[in-house]
Task: inverse folding
């Protein structure tokens, strides 16, 4: 299992490097095509091109692995591994020329009892020249400009009254009938900022913000942060405190902040 894992984690850098090149090719492109999917979320040719590159590269190297991607869905596999891909997390930002988007790639392993755990992942931010990576038991690392590498750590924060909290657009609270939860959060936190999608998670994992709250998440939105946040000393759970990989709602923060944050959201 360890040899199999090492082979796959070695591929993560190649995947992230290749996907970054594609993203930057399309970023700020004058004729970028943007369409709306059935759920009214946007998709661009960059999303599709990146996911196709990632799928082709992964399956060429590991044809028996499973895959789950936002744009092309599930590919069944027979090995113990599954890759989870979000080719562009923050497509609204990307399509509007805002650099706060990322490429999320996670590697999930299935144990003998059938439980699944994300064991490695990378979140790459092409326009910011930042990347954060993690492998189970080896910590999380923050790479800037392709050269400077440091340990990624959440910063200590004991109370929401001292916290900088990132969250998604108010329309997601409306869609999920949780406007009151947003109001309580705004009253309890020191500051709320709309640095949403995977950029907020990057800020928490690297100690530049204290928490992320999101009322609607998908498996590919969580992706590599299911391993990055714990390896950086943080927690990533749903609003009730359950660690889950299938989406739903989510909070990410330092452990010292988690109970208060969940209580404010649930009240």
Result:
């Amino acid at each position: 299992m360890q040899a199999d894992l090492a082979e796959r984690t070695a591929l993560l850098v190649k995947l992230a490097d290749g996907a970054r090149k594609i993203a930057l090719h399309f970023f700020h492109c004058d004729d970028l095509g943007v369409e709306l999917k059935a759920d009214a979320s946007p998709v661009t040719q960059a999303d599709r091109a990146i996911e196709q590159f990632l799928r082709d590269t992964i399956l060429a190297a590991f044809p028996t692995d499973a895959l789950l991607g936002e744009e092309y869905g599930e590919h069944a596999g027979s090995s113990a591994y599954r890759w989870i891909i979000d080719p562009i997390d923050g497509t609204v930002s990307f399509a509007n020329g805002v650099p706060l988007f990322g490429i999320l790639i996670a590697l999930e392993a299935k144990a003998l009892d059938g439980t699944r755990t994300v064991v490695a992942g990378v979140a790459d931010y092409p326009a910011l020249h930042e990347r954060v990576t993690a492998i189970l038991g080896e910590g999380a690392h923050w790479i800037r400009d392709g050269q400077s590498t440091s340990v990624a750590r959440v910063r200590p924060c004991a109370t929401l009254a001292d916290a900088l909290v990132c969250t998604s657009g108010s329309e997601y609270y409306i869609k999920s009938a949780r406007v009151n939860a947003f109001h309580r959060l705004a009253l309890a936190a020191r500051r709320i900022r709309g640095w949403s999608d995977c950029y907020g998670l990057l800020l928490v994992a690297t100690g530049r913000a204290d928490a992320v709250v999101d009322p609607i998440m998908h498996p590919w939105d969580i992706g590599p942060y299911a391993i990055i946040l714990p390896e950086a000393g943080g927690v990533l759970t749903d609003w009730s405190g359950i660690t889950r990989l299938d989406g739903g709602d989510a909070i990410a923060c330092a452990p010292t902040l988690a109970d208060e944050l969940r209580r404010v959201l649930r009240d």
